[in-house]
Amino acid sequence: MTLEQLRIFVAVAEREHVTAAARALHVSQSAASAAIAALEERHDVRLFNRVGRGVELTDAGRIFLREARAVLARAAAAEQALDELRALTRGSLRLVASQTTAAYWLPAILARYRAAYPRIAINLGIGNSDQAASRVHDGDADFGVVEGPVDDPALAVFPIGADRLQLVAATPFAAPPNAAWLGRARWVMRERGSGTRAALEDALRGLGVDPAALDVALVLPSNESVRTAVEAGAGVTALSSLVVGPSLAAGALHAAPTDFGARLFYGLRHKERYRSRAADALVELIGPWKG
């Protein structure tokens, strides 16, 4: 079994198409097919079912995919370790961030990073906070940035920045909302697993409001979709001041005089995996949190 066979297998599994995988890896279709056939014949196990012009993983293939990815991740880490001996003149930064930080907080920092280390390739993945933590845990990312604390003993979690949640609606608030008003309001929310939703629910509990009893009209998967729905009058929400700032300035949204307090952004690193020098350089550039 070779790393090339594993790369081809993973590429085919992710695309569910041999030709598309071969094209992505710059190998011939026959070479890709031969690599899959060699794995199946050597171990006497079928990894794919052929369906029309495409393929789909068998149960054995799905199990093998996890192991193949793990092997390739370790091989990539070994290769990166050698590259980084050249003082960050080569290599990559595998970064994952939650939506708010990726869209509104990180770009200026990554611009400074690019200026300082122009030969480091930045690979940024985006998900909600739970998804970002999972990718760091699994070794798919060297460093993560999320919008709330993460309960995972395998990860080092430390504050690196902050923002504030703002309660907003399409029309002005007649008076400062109290707990009773918040409990009666119709809400537009981010999905569970989102750091924004977790921070809002914590803030509401602190005000004596049970998040489970709220009238939630819509649950949407991005800050932008939540903001747009609220601008259209679907309900109220609380989003990062970074997200709603332009809409407040344009008069499309109105903020309530409600202070939910500061919300921290956290950096994530795996405690036991190899510490990427590219990620170390990013942490140094961000600097210690001075809240």
TrEMBL record:
<dbReference type="Pfam" id="PF03466">
    <property type="entry name" value="LysR_substrate"/>
</dbReference>
<protein>
    <submittedName>
        <fullName>LysR substrate-binding domain-containing protein</fullName>
    </submittedName>
</protein>
<comment type="similarity">
    <text>Belongs to the LysR transcriptional regulatory family.</text>
</comment>
<feature type="domain" description="HTH lysR-type">
    <location>
        <begin position="1"/>
        <end position="58"/>
    </location>
</feature>
<keyword id="KW-0804">Transcription</keyword>
<dbReference type="InterPro" id="IPR005119">
    <property type="entry name" value="LysR_subst-bd"/>
</dbReference>
<dbReference type="InterPro" id="IPR000847">
    <property type="entry name" value="LysR_HTH_N"/>
</dbReference>
<keyword id="KW-0238">DNA-binding</keyword>
<dbReference type="InterPro" id="IPR036390">
    <property type="entry name" value="WH_DNA-bd_sf"/>
</dbReference>
<keyword id="KW-0805">Transcription regulation</keyword>
<dbReference type="InterPro" id="IPR036388">
    <property type="entry name" value="WH-like_DNA-bd_sf"/>
</dbReference>
<dbReference type="Pfam" id="PF00126">
    <property type="entry name" value="HTH_1"/>
</dbReference>
